[in-house]
Amino acid sequence: MNYYDIVKANAAKFRGDEKAMWSSIESVSVLLEKIKEEYPDLYWSFLRDQHEVMVGHHFNEAYAKWEVEKMHHKGMDGTTYKGKHWSIEQTNAVLNGMRSKIPAAYNEWDFYVALNASYHDFCKAAKKHMPDKADELIIDLAVAFWFDDEDWDGTTKVWDYFRK
User: Fold this and answer.
1) Which of 11, 57, 93, 164 could share a disulfide with 156, CB 3.0–4.6 Å?
2) Residue 146: closest CA among 162, 125, 129, 131
3) Burial annotation 44-77 (CB, 10 A radius, 16+ → b, else e)
4) For residue 154, how many other CB atoms are within 10 A of its CB?
5) pLDDT value at residue 163
């Protein structure tokens, strides 16, 4: 018997007793915290699956920050750069100025992930070819790739790309 079998066999009791349901959820949450310490990728993968089921295919603050923390690139000087280049405040300022170009279904955290990913992917080339306007070029490329892609059906590209 596994966890699914236990829940399925006792689902009727959960419907009748919210206290029992929350107690069960709490015990799973405690177990997940232990898993997070030893197996962080497994932990985040599980939470991402649950997020999709409950919320959908768009980032929230926790998943966006986790995804951006994993991003990295090697600079022209050989140094490895990790994590965010732009803060949420900076990406929100850009988003506010471009909101008419971004489908409404995308939220601020989708935009934060997309811009930071594009920075890590394109910064060396952008700085090489347009050193004084590298950030501006990267933002334009990010909007074109993530949000104005005519061959992508739907408004979940950022989430789906990182879903792997």
Assistant:
1) 57
2) 162
3) beeebeebeeeeebbbeeebbbbbbeebeeeeee
4) 9
5) 85
Smallest CA-to-CA distance from 146 within 120, 119, 111 is with 111
44: left (phi > 0), else alpha (psi -120 to 50), else beta?
Answer: alpha
pLDDT, tens only, 32-80: 999 999 999 899 889 989 999 998 999 999 999 999 999 999 998 999 9
CB 126 within 8 A of CB 137: yes
Q: What is the pTM of this model?
A: 0.86
What per-residue confidence (pLDDT) applies to 10? 81
Q: Which two tokens stand for residue 55?
A: 């919320």
